[in-house]
């Protein structure tokens, strides 16, 4: 039987122990597999797996250590890949019934880099259909439950990765972010999620290559773990015109930051994002509790202009570019979120798109003005406490109807429009005793700086129960929750042939 404590160690510590021969990659993998078997039924975070291959790779990783070969930054660490990313020989469904049997014959750029760094891919992590929305449920795999209460939403679209990290199923998990998909689930599950600056991590599946709305990035149980993974993902690639050369080694550890020198601004709602009263009160209490850590902590007003309408247009155009063929030929097989986004796009004109581009530029420039006086901007990651996963999305706040199915995520997609790097840092509990995520937003292109600041905050908060990272009660997850898979129509075929050529529907 494997050492049950190994999965609870940070990826940084596991990698150190593997390199020093204190533990074997085989031992680490087997410990993670035992944990997945015991706890995954309760949260449904890990979906398709490739266990036989992972065991072979773990043995090869063990031999490499013994023979003194050069070891990559993630050598021997078991990894989960978000099910929007193509993985060679491993089922990739995008959460859609259209691809329930799709097994790619290639790794996409990001996955290939994580593998090249020594990670051992164990399986995929759950997502909403095509990543649309912040509730990780789909007709292929069912719903992912929140580790703090499996009947509540784990967030999305990187909800499977966040839940897997929070329950210590795997030390390394990947994610992506358009309107908050790295940050929202991190906040809901009590882990770290980082939306990088566009271009830092190459995205080959983005149909509109010059549009910075969608990024790939890291998650982790700590900022240090997040940095380690991030350092292996970054860099130039000729499939992404926004990508550029990056020194990954310089990002492998958090940069040193003295919190006492930082001038910090904070907001409850980013100038108009829907935020429930309990989260507003929680945010004020957190600011009071951490104020002494900074040189200044000032509440500010932020002008986000017509950010909601702007995001509607930019997001819809992105969906038009990706899903036209599927909508026209297989609309009946698409979920309501995909259909809603696409149909918003069909009503737009070229003038609407031009206006949205200009408005995003104005939002970007206005937001950067804050950094003339401040080093960081803080706000709640999500404006609402986790809600039941059976509820697809939140449609009202304080009795007022919201614009559409993703309007409740405005606190994260406002920041997407500004393009600044942002960390969701676990920060105690909210008014309903669920994880509270603090969104820490850095300067334009200041990825290393904001990760360093988040790490310093993490260290400062560790001794304060009101601010420290909360942990789920894993003992309560011992029994599976069958309802988590209740929306599955029929299971995928795990013996499907490996596809050769581009992904169906060109995501």
Helix and strand sequence: HHEHEHEEEEEHEHEEHEHEHHHEEEHEEH
Helix content: 25-40%
The assembly state of the depicted protein chains is single chain
Major sheet attributes: 11 strands, mixed
CATH class of the largest domain: Alpha Beta
- The overall average pLDDT, rounded, is 94
How many distinct folded domains? 2
- Structural shape: globular
CATH topology-level name of the largest domain: Amidase signature (AS) enzymes
Strands, count: 17
Q: How much β-strand is present in the residues?
A: 5-15%
The separation of the N and C termini measures 41 Å
**CATH H-level homologous superfamily name of the largest domain:** Amidase signature (AS) domain
Poorly predicted sequence stretches spanning 5 or more consecutive residues: none
Radius of gyration: 21 Å
Strand order of the largest sheet: 1-3-2-8-10-9-16-17-13-11-12
- The secondary structure category is alpha+beta
Helix-strand layout with pairing:
Layout: H1 11-19, H2 25-43, E1 46-49, H3 51-66, E2 78-82, H4 109-116, E3 120-125, E4 137-138, E5 142-143, E6 145-146, E7 149-153, H5 159-166, E8 172-177, H6 183-189, E9 192-195, E10 215-220, H7 223-233, E11 263-266, H8 277-290, E12 296-299, H9 307-330, H10 336-346, H11 350-368, E13 376-380, E14 396-397, E15 400-401, H12 410-418, E16 422-429, E17 435-441, H13 447-461
Parallel strand pairs: 2-3, 2-8, 11-12, 11-13
Antiparallel strand pairs: 1-3, 4-5, 6-7, 8-10, 9-10, 9-16, 13-17, 14-15, 16-17
Helix pairs in contact: 2-3, 5-6, 9-10, 9-11, 9-12
């Amino acid at each position: 039987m494997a050492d049950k404590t190994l999965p609870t160690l940070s990826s940084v510590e596991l990698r150190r122990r593997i390199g020093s021969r204190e533990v074997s990659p085989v031992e680490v993998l087997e410990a993670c597999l035992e944990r997945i078997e015991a706890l995954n039924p309760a949260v449904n975070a890990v979906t398709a797996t490739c266990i036989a291959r992972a065991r072979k790779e773990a043995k090869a990783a063990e031999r490499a250590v013994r023979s003194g070969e050069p070891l990559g930054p993630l050598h021997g660490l078991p990894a989960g890949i978000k099910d929007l990313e193509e993985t060679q020989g491993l089922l990739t469904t995008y959460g859609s019934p259209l691809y329930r049997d799709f097994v790619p014959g290639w790794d996409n750029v990001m996955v290939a880099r994580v593998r090249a760094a020594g990670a051992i891919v164990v399986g995929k992590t759950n997502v909403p259909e095509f990543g649309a929305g912040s509730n990780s449920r789909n007709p292929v795999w069912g719903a992912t439950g929140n580790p703090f209460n499996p009947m509540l939403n784990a967030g999305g679209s990187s909800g499977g990765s966040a839940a897997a990290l929070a329950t210590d199923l795997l030390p390394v998990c990947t994610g992506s972010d358009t309107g908050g998909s790295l940050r929202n689930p991190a906040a809901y599950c009590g882990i770290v999620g980082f939306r990088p600056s566009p271009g830092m991590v190459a995205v080959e599946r983005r149909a509109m290559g010059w549009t910075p709305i969608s990024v790939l990035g890291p998650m982790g149980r700590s900022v240090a773990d997040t940095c380690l993974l991030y350092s292996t993902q970054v860099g130039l690639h000729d499939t992404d015109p926004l990508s550029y050369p990056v020194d990954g080694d310089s990002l492998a550890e958090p940069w040193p930051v003295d919190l006492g020198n930082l001038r910090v601004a904070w907001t409850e709602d980013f100038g108009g994002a829907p935020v429930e009263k309990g989260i507003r009160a929680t945010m004020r209490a957190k600011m009071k509790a951490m104020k002494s850590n900074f040189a200044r902590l000032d509440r500010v007003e932020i002008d986000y202009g017509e950010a909601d309408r702007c995001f509607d247009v930019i997001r819809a155009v992105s969906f038009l570019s990706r899903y036209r063929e599927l909508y026209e030929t297989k609309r009946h097989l698409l979920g309501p979120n995909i259909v809603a986004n696409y149909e918003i796009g069909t009503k737009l004109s070229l003038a609407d798109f031009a206006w949205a581009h200009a408005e995003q530029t104005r939002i970007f420039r206005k937001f950067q003005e804050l950094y003339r006086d401040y080093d960081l901007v803080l706000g709640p990651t999500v404006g609402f406490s986790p809600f039941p996963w059976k509820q697809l999305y939140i449609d009202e706040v304080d009795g007022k109807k919201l614009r559409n199915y993703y309007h409740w995520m405005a606190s994260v997609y406002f920041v997407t429009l500004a393009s600044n790097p942002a960390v969701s840092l676990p920060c105690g509990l909210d008014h309903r005793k669920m994880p509270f995520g603090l969104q820490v937003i850095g300067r334009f292109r200041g990825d290393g700086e904001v990760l360093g600041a988040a790490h310093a905050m993490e260290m400062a908060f560790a001794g304060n129960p009101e601010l420290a990272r909360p942990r789920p009660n894993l003992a309560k997850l011992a029994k599976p929750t069958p309802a988590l898979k209740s929306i599955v129509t029929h299971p995928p075929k795990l013996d499907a042939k490996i596809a050769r050529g581009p992904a169906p529907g060109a995501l």
